Amino acid sequence: MAPHDDPGDPDDTSVGPVSPLEQALHAARALVLADLAAREVAEADVVSLVEESVAHRRWWVEQWPEGARFVAGLIAQDVQDALLERYGRWPLCPVCGSGDPHALEVEPELGPDPHWVCHLAGVKVAAVGSLGGAAST
Predict the structure, then answer these.
(1) What is the pLDDT of residue 46?
(2) pTM for the whole thing?
(3) Residue 124 in 3-state DSSP?
(4) Which of 36, 47, 60, 135 has the fewest CB atoms found within 10 Å of its own CB?
């Protein structure tokens, strides 16, 4: 056994396998952070909103493991709701050039493969995590 393989070795910094639950939460966190960064709102206080949602959804997915595939859309919605309460609508629709500014919505509300959708134009704008590829206003 090599010294770094000794489970009692205090210098061992290897991490064991990551559970599917944690993988889903980390992936969802990364997707939402990518959208926030793409729209230049990934400030520390906003990132804290993501962390709060991840903590809340961790409990939720522990109670319903089959829901792990839905967690990205739920975290996106949680952050969107928290931003609305504190700062206003996010993310603003890049599709509609006229009329009142409005936010995109996550669809499906509870399902896999969540997308940001403009209900006024009736179009999918981008997958959650891909707002950087959508034109911004």
Answers:
(1) 95
(2) 0.83
(3) strand
(4) 135
